[in-house]
Amino acid sequence: MATYCLTVARLRLALGQGARRMHVSAAFSAKAKVSMSRFEPSNHVNYQQLNENVNIVRKRLNRPLTLSEKIVYGHLDDPVGQDIARGRTYLRLRPDRVAMQDATAQMAMLQFISSGLPKVAVPSTIHCDHLIEAQIGGAKDLARAKDINAEVYNFLASAGAKYGVGFWKPGSGIIHQIILENYAYPGVLLIGTDSHTPNGGGLGSVCIGVGGADAVDVMAGIPWELKCPNVIGVKLTGKLSGWTSPKDVILKVAGILTVKGGTGAIVEYHGPGVDSISCTGMATICNMGAEIGATTSVFPYNHRMKTYLEKTGRGEIAALADEYADLLVPDQGCQYDSVIEINLDELKPHINGPFTPDLAHPISDIGTTAVKNGWPLEVKVGLIGSCTNSSYEDMGRSASVAKQALDKGLKCKAAFTITPGSEQIRATIERDGYAKILNDVGGMVLANACGPCIGQWDRRDVKKGEKNTIVTSYNRNFTARNDANPATHAFVASPEIVTALAIAGTLDFNPEVDYLIAANGEKFKLEPPNADELPKKDFDPGQDTYQHPPAEGGAKLKVEVSPTSTRLQLLDPFDKWNGGDLEDMQVLIKVKGKCTTDHISAAGPWLKFRGHLDNISNNMLIGAVNIENDGINKIKNQLTGEYGGVPDVARHYKANGLSWVVVGDDNYGEGSSREHAALEPRHLGGRAIIVKSFARIHETNLKKQGLLPLTFQDPADYDKIRPDDKISIKGLKTFAPGKPLLAVVKHSDGTKVEFQLNHTFNETQIEWFQAGSALNRMKELQ
Question: What angle in degrees, to the nearest 10, is found between the helix axes of 696-704 and 212-219?
Fold first, then answer.
């Protein structure tokens, strides 16, 4: 292994001062134990075990391994006996840690409470970032959120204390930035209850978004199942320069692979171009990999990651990673299932959208395309930040653009908002003057939270239904996602491009070639942004917002949930399979076109009910388009003949003992990891979801809750189903992996049709279905 050497000056920088330096210096030996994080000194980085497992698997497979294979296979529960075949077998894994954001942590912790276990088995954290609505500015918005969400925050804090889970208070920052700053490191396997968990891949981690039930498995000490991923290689050559940013890499990749092209695969970046990208830039690319359906994305360990680890107080992990550097990069000669090549010298800034993150446009083309399609050119609001682009470098590059405008007497023509990724970023950009520049150009700094990116935005400058354009540095731009207005055309770009467009006030402004008019009437061009990758001084940590679990344990603590609460509700077990086929289930809705988890379980104002299953179920499928009438939240109740909202009709069917199914299109359930999109159909009487294809996380979530996610063996069979049909699913008595089920569809005119339905259940997952849910099965095995 490579020997790690530092000059005395750099050694001091990495180690810090005083007692801490003395403590950390002992860890610079590979044989010393190095803590996974400063918050968990008794949990250690175990590269030795990872290396041993990788060597076992490499010898078994007799071939070089990709980096993602090394990290994933290195965490196998049984590296000797595990059947390994990309895209086919299910792996049983032992993740190193779990992270949960507050909107999904509520249901995850309610399920963990239901498990009856006394304490989590792996390091776990809760992050309060989703429940803070952007209204008038960071401090006031945060204070308001603490007030109206006090019940939920108290529940999460007390549950964390009782069960040994670290708690990051509201105002700490966005979960993925906190993970990058504190918990991600090269080679770690982390699961998080948010679809943008892959952000950690920028630090050489395999970080995977999951539903809450998966998190419960890992917190319970049960091996976690993942279908063995394929591996897509993205070879980067050349070097980023000018207006082109890391965000443009993933915007380009999204245009190539589309929103489902990465499904079932890990995207692994490699090649000489990698070294021109900062660690936080690599995180941006991995973060938005969720929008192509990828299981996760990852970069190989390099000097950029080492520098970031040192700058965030983790020099000891960097030193250890250096000693195991060969483990943390792909083997020479490894093979990818497919390879995309991108020359960074030739890559141009991109803008993706509207309404889908894979509609990619070079910035030079967006104006012409917008005019052709009737998209509004006036930019109403520019929004920078979010978990995708809120690093120190991002803020610095945006401030670099804003400073040029200010120097010419200009301010933003559009409204402009800034979301710092963490308290540490907020404090540091305030200290270093970036926040003042962004404020002076017309910006408003929001709370350290998700905010408008997830629909937590009390937007008042346009009316609902008013056609308008916004440009963001976010990751996702589905219809009505940011502001609940289906007429808002949301485009995604880098923070520096968003800043330039907010200054110009128009979508067809190309800062590479177009001129602005200064206050004195002179024409000028914006120079390409330039900013430090990391602060010259150390980061300013800001306020301490972390709550440690009590050292003495939480056995004596109580977690109270009021039976009259509208925000929280203890869970009752779902009913078990009755042992027979599912007969004469009513089609609740036949969905037309794109149906994301935002369509199935909307966020925004509904986030407040994420801990109350019955209340949150009132938003089930209210955004989906009914093929019968192209209506939204308007379906026919086949028992009464009247039209009503989807949740209302589902409740009526359930009250009358009528089970139902949903029929959907391609990539059903793309987007967020929210398991509420699976819990709600199960709670309201659903039994099966039959579609052309599923997004990975949603399919798993449906299985976890005892539903049947099934796909048409022939996608054309979608057209054979009518909105008023009844469907029976045959073959459940002999339900087995790889064996199709039979659909018998009865039309209202007395005719019927039959066809095959495929599934991806393995034996363990079939047991979940039979028990009624994965949680029920866990209890059976205790």
Answer: 70
Catalytic residue selected from 94, 97, 114, 129: 129
422 is catalytic: no
pLDDT of residue 708: 98
Q: Of the listed 75, 94, 130, 304, which one is catalytic?
A: 130
- The continuous run of DSSP H or E covering 613 comes out as helix 613-616
- Which 3 state secondary structure label does DSSP give 210? coil
- For residue 674, indicate whether it is catalytic: yes
Tell me, yes or no, if 672 is annotated catalytic: yes
Six-digit token string for 511: 């800062």
Please tell me the predicted confidence (pLDDT) of residue 782. 82
**What is the chain's length?**
782
What does DSSP assign to residue 90? E
Q: Does 357 sit behind a cis peptide bond, omega within 30 degrees of 0 on the bond before it?
A: no
Strands, E assignment, 292-413:
296-298, 338-343, 350-352, 360-362, 379-385
**476 catalytic residue (yes or no):** yes
Which candidate in 672, 673, 693, 773 is catalytic? Answer: 672
Which of 102, 141, 194, 217 is an active site residue?
194
Question: Residue 105 carries which DSSP code?
Answer: H
Q: Would you place residue 262 in the very low, low, confident or very high pLDDT band (cuts 50, 70, 90)?
A: very high
For residues 260 and 225, the answer to whether their CB atoms sit within 8 Å is no
Beta strands in 210-302 (DSSP E): 224-227, 230-237, 265-270, 296-298
Selecting among 176, 426, 476, 696, the annotated active-site residue is 476
Distance, CA of 507 to CA of 566 (rounded, Å) = 43
Q: Which residue has the tokens 């860890």?
A: 27
Q: Helix 150-163 to helix 102-115 angle, to the nearest 10 degrees?
A: 50
Q: Is 728 part of the annotated catalytic residue set?
A: no
297 is catalytic: no
* 3-state secondary structure at position 759: coil
Over its C-alpha atoms, the chain yields an Rg (Å, rounded) of 25
Could you tell me if 108 and 238 are in contact, meaning their C-beta atoms sit under 8 angstroms apart? no
Q: 713: which DSSP letter?
A: S
Span 110-169, pLDDT tens digits = 999 999 999 999 999 999 999 999 999 999 999 999 999 999 999 999 999 999 999 999
In Å, what is the CA distance from 560 to each residue of 158, 216, 551, 564, 775? 8, 20, 21, 12, 21
d(CA 527, CA 545): 38
- Phi, psi angles (nearest 5°) of residue 745: -105, 120
Q: What values do phi and psi take at 472, rounded to 5?
A: -130, 160
Pick the residue with more confidence: 217 or 24? 217
User: Considering the entire predicted model, what is its pTM?
Assistant: 0.91
Token pair listed for 309: 């680890």
For the record, the structure tokens of 689 come out as 């979801």
Instruction: Return the DSSP state at 340.
Output: E
Q: Residues near 214 by Cβ (< 8 Å), separated by ≥ 6?
A: 191, 193, 224, 700, 704
Q: Which of 674, 687, 698, 777 is catalytic?
A: 674
Contact 130, 456 (CB under 8 A): yes
Token pair listed for 435: 């926040």
What is the spatial distance between Cα 222 and Cα 214, in angstroms, rounded to a whole number? 10
